[in-house]
Amino acid sequence: MTNGKGMLCAAMVLLSLCGGLIQAGERPNIMVVISDDQSWWTTSAAGCEAISTPAFDRVAQQGVMLNYGYCFAPQCAPARATLLTGRPIWQLEEGAVQRSHLPAKFTCYTNLFKQAGYHVGCAVKGWGPGKLGDRKQNPAGKQYKDFSRFLKARKSGQPFCFWVGSRNPHRPFNQGHDGTVDIDKIQVPGYLPDVPEVRSELAGYLREIVQFDRELADLMQQLEETGEADNTIVIVTSDNGMPFPRGKCNCYDAGVRVPLAIRWPAKVKPGRTVDDFVSFPDIAPTLLEAAGIQTPDDMVGRSFMNVLTADGSGQIDKTRDAVIYGRERHMVTRPQRTGYPIRAIRTHDYLYLWNCRPKRSPTGRPYGIADVGPTEAGDYMLAHRERSSVAPLFELCYVERPEFELYDIRKDPDQIHNIIDDPASAQVAQRLNQRLMDYLHKTGDPRVGPDGDVFDRYPFWLTKREK
Ligand SMILES: [Ca+2]
Fold first, then answer.
1. How do strand 350-355 and strand 404-408 relate by DSSP bridges?
2. What are the residue ranges of CATH 3.40.720.10 in the chain?
């Protein structure tokens, strides 16, 4: 080794030592607040008039409201895995499916923050459901009971990286009737029957969101009390959309488009609403950039720090004009424990879906261990599926789907009318298909390789009750 190289090594050691002694105030704290099964439209900031979500709205007003946030996979564990690793589900092996594990070889941003000297931890629901496998602790960090206990365990001056996962608004809906939902103002999505049974079920769902908002208000209060709120990046989002037919476990907006508000007063101008597409794998590289930590080359998500620190609203970065995502197995609800694989591309104007195995049931069994269910909306559709008003909705939610679907969002925001066979749409479909397939090949998706069904062979963990 030459002297020059020796000196360089010494300097690097010194730098890394300094990195271990970083002080709060120099690097930002991180707080990811993640609800469970919340669709993007369920906040007052997003225009929902049936409930009020003051805590979410305040985070959005004090920072940036991202109108096109996507969770990548319409399921708890796989979506959380993409947020933590900065990678698409199809690169994560067992991490791509629900109730398996996220192999330790896939680095999470939490590991990198810990290496950089941060106090790292999580409360309530971290990554999951699944088994730890070859990991020693939850990928979201060491488990603490709550934020205050996490803070108590912090060394003086140490910056923190905290994740808190609420269990709301996940089923069961058990908040009780407390007058917080204006049932007449619920906008029933076009793929569900607008009947009292369904309105009542949606009201139960929205009450859980009000409860989550109270939890968020409490957390923000605690953060203020640390005196470090201005240099804390707060991300409020959800792991997937509403647990209703055509929602959770589906790649329509109801399953994958989630609330996303980000606040960082030290660097991000308040009061902005952004229309750029942002997906869960983009979050880890963004947080790493914010903290000055090197992003590993295998994180294919792209930092959107340029979007957060820009001045204006609307579309900021013109390259963020689409999002690509997908799903693999959720529950073991089909023969041979197969999943219902989907790959999707969403632009502002269109949603294009590739149902990779269209002969399988898109929902699995509607009862027992099912992808989504039982639901009152599903019960109603099953019971009344012969009625002319219900039959088309039943078909949308439960019947086999064609290999490709295309929706014109401008005319059909609820994504109900598949126009894939319309000759006028052929060019759009071809263009979106090409862009989707190019990305899947580029990022090594087994679904475009020789063994796409590898995902169906990963282990599935049953609870004691289910065995
Ligand atoms: Ca969830």
1. antiparallel
2. 28-321
CA 170 – ligand 1 centroid, Å = 7
CA 76 to ligand 1 centroid distance, Å:
4
- Residues with Cβ within 8 Å of residue 73, at least 6 apart in sequence: 79, 81, 82, 89, 96, 240, 256, 325, 326, 327, 328
- Distance (Å, whole) CA 41 – CA 69: 11
Q: Which protein residues have a CB closer than 5 Å to ligand 1 (ion)?
A: 36-37, 76, 239-240
Cα 227 to middle of ligand 1, angstroms: 32
244-297 pLDDT tens trace: 999 999 999 999 999 999 999 999 999 999 999 999 999 999 999 999 999 999
Q: Which residues pair with 354 in a beta bridge?
A: 343, 404
Q: 442 burial class (0-12, 13-18, 19+ CB within 10 angstroms)?
A: exposed
Report the CATH superfamily, name and number, of domain 28-321: Alkaline Phosphatase, subunit A (3.40.720.10)
What confidence score (pLDDT) does residue 369 get?
Answer: 65
Q: What token pair was written down for 163?
A: 């994740």
CA distance 258 to 34: 10
Please tell me the number of Cα atoms within 13 Å of 22 on its side-chain side.
Answer: 22
Q: How far is the CA of 437 from the centre of ligand 1 (A)?
A: 27
Coil/strand/helix, residue 426: helix
- In whole angstroms, how far apart are CA 287 and each of 108, 210, 290, 301, 342? 12, 28, 5, 11, 28
pLDDT per residue as tens digits for the range 161-201: 999 999 999 999 998 888 999 999 999 999 999 999 999 99
**Residues above pLDDT 90, as percent of the chain:** 89
CB atoms within 10 A of CB 239: 30
Give residue 424 CA to ligand 1 midpoint distance, Å.
37
* Alpha carbon of 249 to ligand 1 centroid (Å): 10
Q: Are strands 119-124 and 160-165 parallel, antiparallel or unpaired?
A: parallel
8 Å CB contact between 146 and 121: no
Ligand 1 midpoint to CA 354 (Å): 23
In this prediction, residue 24 carries a pLDDT of 45
pLDDT at 116: 98
pLDDT of residue 13: 43
The rounded Å distance from CA 426 to ligand 1 centre is 35
